[in-house]
Amino acid sequence: MVKGDCSLPKLGLSNSDYEILSQQVNIIFHLAATVKFDEKFNIAIPINVGGTKEIIDLCRACVGLKSMVYISTAYSNCHLKEIRECFYDPPFDMDEDIINYLCTADEATIELLKPKILDKWPNTYTFTKSIAENILRKTAADLPISIVRPSQVVATMKEPIPGWTDNIFGPAGAVIGYASGVIKTGVNNNSVSQDIVPVDLVINFIIAAAYIVGIRTKLSRRPFSVEFVKPAMARCRKTPFTLPLPSPPLLMCQIPGVGHIGKGNLYVVTALEGTN
């Protein structure tokens, strides 16, 4: 375990720890984020946006990186009526100047500009997640990265024990509020489905995503070629079928014309000889 801070350059890691991670880490799960919906810009942006940029830099530093999974949210583009498994354009490209301004401007100015900055996004959490996804799309498309977008994460279904949770956000907080008698009333539309998912299922899916990306990347980097059949052909010549056929030849070439000549010699001529 190493000590770090996602809001700081190089993730707040010491030079020695950063070097150790870059040499020994193969799989990265980027779950660190502030999930407070109305978090201030000067807190949410350095963690949710800046932290993602730093993770990308760490990925590039890792000599044996096989897979990185970024945990976003199903609501990163919640202003859309239909959300597909693809990238969407954020409200604007957030370059370093904009990030620095939003992190350093006085609170009164930020509050005045907040509705214009958020645009159609309802809060800073979904806004910063959308920005982070776009950063991954634009700056990390060449890396073995996947994005997982869970909906409302709730207590465990099975593992490590049923009902385990470590926070009171979202549905868990509402249940605790009702159970304790603190929340007396609420507004609910019974015709609307609640998109919730147990946290242990989310974790299982994240692990599976890392595995799939790692496998696909490995296969794409080392694809099969026809060379792999040569050992099989050698064994066929060594142990041929017990049929009255000649030893099986194998002519492989890249020029179609040569291939057609080979077909004529091996199939047509052989057939004519067989008729004599």
TrEMBL record:
<comment type="similarity">
    <text>Belongs to the fatty acyl-CoA reductase family.</text>
</comment>
<dbReference type="InterPro" id="IPR026055">
    <property type="entry name" value="FAR"/>
</dbReference>
<protein>
    <recommendedName>
        <fullName>Fatty acyl-CoA reductase</fullName>
        <ecNumber>1.2.1.84</ecNumber>
    </recommendedName>
</protein>
<dbReference type="GO" id="GO:0102965">
    <property type="term" value="F:alcohol-forming long-chain fatty acyl-CoA reductase activity"/>
</dbReference>
<keyword id="KW-0560">Oxidoreductase</keyword>
<keyword id="KW-0443">Lipid metabolism</keyword>
<dbReference type="InterPro" id="IPR036291">
    <property type="entry name" value="NAD(P)-bd_dom_sf"/>
</dbReference>
<feature type="domain" description="Thioester reductase (TE)">
    <location>
        <begin position="1"/>
        <end position="206"/>
    </location>
</feature>
<dbReference type="GO" id="GO:0005777">
    <property type="term" value="C:peroxisome"/>
</dbReference>
<dbReference type="InterPro" id="IPR013120">
    <property type="entry name" value="FAR_NAD-bd"/>
</dbReference>
<comment type="function">
    <text>Catalyzes the reduction of fatty acyl-CoA to fatty alcohols.</text>
</comment>
<keyword id="KW-0444">Lipid biosynthesis</keyword>
<dbReference type="GO" id="GO:0035336">
    <property type="term" value="P:long-chain fatty-acyl-CoA metabolic process"/>
</dbReference>
<dbReference type="Pfam" id="PF07993">
    <property type="entry name" value="NAD_binding_4"/>
</dbReference>
<dbReference type="GO" id="GO:0080019">
    <property type="term" value="F:alcohol-forming very long-chain fatty acyl-CoA reductase activity"/>
</dbReference>
<keyword id="KW-0521">NADP</keyword>
